[in-house]
Amino acid sequence: MERMLRTTAVTMLAAVCLVLTACTDASSARDRDGGDAGSDAGGSVSRVPSDLAADEVAPSGTATDVVTGLDAPWSVVVVGSGSGSDGSVLVSERDSADVLELRDGATRTVGRIDGVQHGGEGGLLGLAVDDTDPDAPRLYTYSTTADGNRIERYALRGDPGSYTLGARTTILDGLPANSFHNGGRIALGPDGMLYASVGDAGDGDDAQDRSSLAGKILRMTPDGDVPADNPFDDSLVWSLGHRNVQGLGWAADGTMFASEFGQDTWDELNVIEPGADYGWPEVEGKGGGSGFVDPVQQWRTDDASPSGLAVVGDTVFVANLQGRVVRGIPVADPSGAHEYFAGEYGRIRTVLAGPGGDLWFVTNNTDGRGDPAAGDDRIVSVGLRSSEG
Questions:
Q1: Phi and psi of 207, rounded to 5°?
Q2: End-to-end CA distance of the chain, in Å?
């Protein structure tokens, strides 16, 4: 259905989808954030799989709540991770546009991002922290406005436990936006560059157009400039042919992974190479050649909706909304996977290495697409172990 809708104006698409609740991307059981997935949290126990590879890690022990009562959380980042964490964590709430500081199981508001326009999947989305200078940390945000998606940078003022948002700098604005397919994940790579995923905003053809930033992974300097070694001259485009990437992460050897929402058939885990074309909308999932790069793993759409991604040790962890599961994938062989907490916490938006070295994952049952249980939304923590203990 979406291929037919691409010939219609994007704004008309959004309106029709919201009113009729009949469009694949804005309202069906997918779009693809999934839906109707309740949370049944409470001290779940995870055991290390017997077939875990020697270089993998897995959740182990009892999962515990770090914090409860969040409202549509989207991104979570640790402050001070570059120099030893000070224990502060920042959380974005998509619909309120609030940035929260989390310490010792309690939250406080750091600030509200001005000009954010929530609608559908838009709002305050990704966060990234540059803490290379521990005395002057900076926060990057990706958010939706009336004029498109944008990336901004804020100085973090004050001390841990009392951070506020300081001076604001617009890094990049006017990015394609819609009520769905906004991408929204941002991350500072091991090369010090800022990466951002931009969705196709409902027009898949733009994902194949190098002059458009829609349906791309972008790479820029921390000030928003084009790095000299980007694959296309004078372009922020790092890779193309994406539908809606919401997870970015790097292994220790520099391998870049991205998780991507498909349409009706296949969701994807990709290894990202500069200048590579991942096929959308010509190919969904493995295309068997055709000049496009195949995913290293694909899942049926009803089983996944892969959102946030984190590489911890030699394991890629992927949060899944519709699939209601955390998947662990070995870096050395990303064609395999183990599943954790399947169906126990409802929709899972993102996953990260917590400040103490445990695995954290974030539920997403309060944004109107899930069935929240008492205490939702929540951040959950669980220890990690290798097969060797």
A1: -65, -20
A2: 49
Whole-angstrom CA distances from 314 to 10, 56, 58, 257 are: 40, 5, 10, 12
- What's the DSSP call for residue 123? S
Closest C-alpha to 213, from 232, 228, 227: 232
Residue 29, both tokens: 């059981």
What tokens were used for 88?
């502060």
pTM of the model: 0.90
Residue 155 and residue 168: Cα distance in Å, rounded? 7
In this structure, what token pair is assigned to residue 218? 């972008």
Q: How far is residue 217 from each of residues 129, 182, 187, 198, 230, measured CA to CA in Å?
A: 18, 12, 11, 6, 12
Q: At a CB cut-off of 8 Å and minimum separation 6, what does 118 contact?
A: 94, 95, 97, 124, 144
Digit-by-digit pLDDT tens for the chain (389 residues) are: 333 333 333 333 333 333 333 333 333 333 444 444 444 555 788 889 999 988 899 999 999 999 999 999 999 999 986 444 567 999 999 999 999 999 999 999 999 999 999 989 999 999 999 999 989 999 999 999 999 999 999 999 999 999 999 999 999 999 999 999 999 999 999 999 999 999 999 999 999 999 999 999 999 999 999 999 999 999 999 999 999 999 999 999 999 999 999 999 999 999 999 999 999 999 999 987 789 999 999 999 999 999 999 999 999 999 999 999 999 999 999 999 999 999 999 999 999 999 999 999 999 999 999 999 999 999 999 999 998 76
Selection from 351, 320, 298, 305 nearest residue 28 by Cα: 305
Burial of 200 (0-12, 13-18, 19+ CB in 10 A): buried
- Say which amino acid occupies 220: M
Buried b (16+ CB within 10 A) or exposed e, 291-305: ebbbbbbbbebebbb
